[in-house]
Design goal:
289 residues
């Protein structure tokens, strides 16, 4: 059991950035095709990160690099705990701490653009955290455990009993993946009026690590989608992986179909979805389980 856990953690730490980078490349390619452009090569995200690592190191304040590295470590730790079959609540709290360190790093730069981006990131956290917590509660109520390994090893697929929570989680993934209409604090596209939002003052190796961290985070979040279909069988695993990939490219479609909304709309929409999809689903589970 311990050996299997160690292998899972090592596999995540090695393979997650590779898979995340490929997804980012496919994202760019598909987005370009939707806009009738050729688009960059699929491996372009890797070329961009390598180029960032080759640039001269320049920082506004030395402390921001310290906070960014803590962000990187906690993102990797949250994914490692998840893929090691650990506790969902610990995973969520670790990821929240990681986001807090990135926000502090942006505030420490004293840049007005970065600070506004950091403030928007805080608002986004307040918007999506209730739905993330309800997702963990839903799994606990249905599977009887917060432990990922217990959920995966279950005999029944949680999707149908948790279909409302699944819909709510997919909704807040748009915020977590930083896709339009909710790319408020930081955008990968040129339309962001804040230049690069909370990463405006980051460059070189520091920005490269942030990009890699997002690849780790994206794979880990898709792991949550996979959990809804895990039932201890090969078919459950295949369905879970396929749905996770489809969910990611569904977010790409939304990203290219909607203009960016105001933060007030993002906040209200996320809380309404959490109340309607999450609370009602949890109430129904309470009645039938």
């Amino acid at each position: 059991m311990i050996i299997k856990t160690i292998i899972s953690v090592i596999a995540y730490l090695i393979l997650a950035p590779l898979a995340g980078g490929l997804l980012a490349g496919l994202d760019r390619k598909l987005s370009a095709r939707m806009q009738r452009r050729v688009g960059p090569p699929i491996l372009q995200p890797f070329y961009d990160v390598l180029k960032l690592f080759e640039k001269e190191k320049q920082t506004v304040t030395k402390v921001q690099d310290y906070y960014v590295m803590l962000f990187v470590i906690f993102v990797m730790a949250s994914g490692a705990i998840f893929f090691a079959g650990g506790d969902l609540l610990l995973v969520i709290f670790t990821l929240t701490i990681a986001s807090a360190f990135l926000i502090i790093a942006a505030f420490s730069s004293n840049s007005p653009y970065a600070q506004v981006g950091a403030e928007r990131e805080l608002l986004q956290m307040m918007a999506y955290e209730p739905m993330v917590l309800m997702t963990a509660i839903g799994f606990y109520m249905y599977c009887g455990s917060f432990t990922v390994s217990d959920i995966i090893g279950g005999t029944s697929m949680p999707f149908l009993p948790l279909i409302g929570i699944f819909a709510g989680f997919v909704f807040i993934l748009t915020i977590k993946f930083r896709k339009s209409p909710f790319d408020l604090s930081m955008s990968h596209h040129a339309h962001q009026e804040l230049v690069r939002g909370l990463t405006t003052e980051f460059s070189g190796r520091t920005l490269g690590w942030i990009e890699i961290s997002h690849w780790y985070e994206n794979i880990f979040l898709l792991g949550f989608v996979f959990l809804f279909f895990a039932n201890g069988t090969v078919w459950g695993t295949i369905i879970g992986v396929v749905v996770a990939i489809v969910a990611y490219f569904f977010e790409v479609l939304i990203d290219n179909s909607f203009a960016r909304m105001k933060w007030q709309f993002a906040f209200k929409a996320a809380w309404i979805v959490a109340l309607v999809c999450g609370v009602i689903n949890i109430f129904v589970l309470y009645l039938i389980v």
